[in-house]
Design brief:
Number of strands: 18
CATH architecture of the largest domain: 3-Layer(bba) Sandwich
Helix content: 25-40%
CATH class of the largest domain: Alpha Beta
Order of helices and strands: EHEEHEEEEHEEEEHEEEEHEEEHHHHHH
Largest sheet: 8 strands, mixed
Shape: globular
Distance between the termini: 15 Å
Number of domains: 2
Number of helices: 11
Strand content: 15-25%
Structural class: alpha/beta
CATH topology of the largest domain: FAD/NAD(P)-binding domain
Length: 429
């Protein structure tokens, strides 16, 4: 039997409450507005901060993220961004201009650019504005202090009183409060990142729109890379530089992230002491993890994103697409166990890409030999690019869900839509 919504006089009771207004939370709401617009008026997003809010992030958006935005009728060109001409992959640890082995590639099929970079404050604020235009309710400055599962739903304790939702979607980041409520003892698998924003200084880079991923830190005990992205801050061209540690297999003895970042800046004629370095965790996707419980779903960083390079924005947008479909099905059937959510994630093209990246991270970052790494990037460029294009990226253009009987698929979803449209009768919780 389909779920009959409780029509309460209490405005703090909702069918769906989403915690977090980052890409994962907003994507869930926007995709829900597409597949089940009937539920949007009974959906609420809670955000602990107020936009525009500072958010640490390299800001890279691959073509997959743009594909998902286009499906939502959104154009990234509406906000300030940088088109990165080439993505360079190296294992050098050399100063700019020094010869070394490596490869470069463009990820876009039309070959116009590799990817784009944005500033998260602007990007997230833009998404929030688009969501509000489509009728999504968003309350900012609400701090959730407790997540309590009850019969028939979830109660959220906040500094503005309690909220109750039939379903709660945890889009509240790597240190998710919702996740801790669902799986308080599950081992976390977190990558680490440290970044600084610098001017175009030292060794002149003005006009340079290349992004560099240098894996020299692998042989120094860090299972990751340093990055160097073009960006814009307050209309000025800058470079966003950082170091990423996937932390797969535990921390190997070697230099610290701060030492690695300091070394990287010195290659560009810069001194780390002149800048404020800020760190942040990235919960990486682990196939054995749990992504849901009765009346609760996890999306984005709360569920886990890319372990290989720490890509989060595109994956978070992809989680929203999968979650919206699963939410629609749950309300259509009246089944809020979400026992099939993990399968939906794993069978999606996003989930398959995440599984591949998880495996590649565990394998690749164990190769610490400078000579072998140089051979990979310098001699196997074509093979690596083939793997990247067919396994790592381009997943958003593939079919996102498990194979269905296409002949019956339309009728199936139309039946579910009719069920959702009937959610009008009063039923005590």
């Amino acid at each position: 039997m389909p779920y009959n919504r409780r029509m309460s006089e209490d405005p703090r009771e909702y069918d769906i409450i989403i915690l977090g207004s980052g890409p994962a939370g907003i994507s869930t709401a926007l995709h829900l507005a597409q597949v089940a617009p009937e539920l949007v008026s009974r959906t609420l997003i809670l955000e602990k901060e107020k936009h525009p809010r500072h958010k640490l992030c390299g800001g890279g958006i691959l073509a997959d993220g743009e594909v998902l935005l286009h499906r939502l009728g959104l154009d990234l060109a509406e906000i300030p961004h940088c088109d990165v001409d080439w993505a360079k992959f190296e294992f050098n640890g050399r100063a700019p201009g020094e010869p070394g082995q490596g490869m470069k590639m463009r990820c876009e099929e039309d070959g116009t650019y590799a990817f784009r970079t944005i500033q998260r404050e602007e990007f997230d604020g833009w998404l929030v504005g688009k969501a509000r235009e489509r009728g999504v309710q968003i309350e900012e400055g609400v701090k959730v202090t407790g997540v309590i599962r009850e019969k028939g739903g979830v109660r959220l304790e906040t500094d503005r009183g309690d909220f109750w939702g039939k379903v709660v979607v945890g889009a509240d980041g790597s240190n998710s409060l919702v996740r801790r409520a669902v799986l308080p003892i599950e081992k976390a698998h977190s990558a680490r990142a440290l970044e600084v924003v610098t001017p175009l200084g030292g060794r002149s880079e003005k006009g340079k729109q290349d992004a560099t991923f240098d894996f020299w830190v692998v042989k120094r005990g860090i299972r990751g890379y340093t990055w160097d992205f073009p960006g814009k801050r307050d209309g000025k061209e800058v470079r966003v530089r950082g170091v990423y540690d996937a932390n797969t297999g535990g921390r190997a003895p070697g230099i610290s992230l701060m030492e690695a970042l300091g070394e990287e800046l010195r290659r560009h004629g810069l001194d780390l002491e002149d800048y404020e370095a800020q760190g942040f965790p990235i919960r990486w996707f682990e196939p054995r993890s749990t992504f849901s419980a009765a009346h609760i779903l996890l999306v984005g960083d709360a569920a886990g994103v890319d372990a290989l390079v720490g890509e989060g924005i595109s994956m978070s947008l992809g989680y929203g697409e999968v979650a919206a479909r699963v939410l629609w099905e749950a309300f259509a059937k009246g089944d809020f166990s979400f026992s099939g959510y993990k399968r939906a994630v794993m069978c999606s093209s996003m989930g398959r890409a995440l599984r591949w990246r998880n495996w590649l991270a565990k394998v690749f970052y164990r190769v610490q030999s400078r000579r072998l790494q140089g051979f990979f990037w310098g001699r196997l460029g074509a093979a690596i690019e083939w793997v990247v294009r067919r396994v790592v990226i381009g997943w958003a253009k593939r079919k996102n869900y498990e194979k269905r009987n296409t002949k019956n698929e339309g009728a199936e979803w139309e039946t579910k839509r009719r069920w959702v449209e009937k959610l009008t009768t009063d039923e005590p919780r």
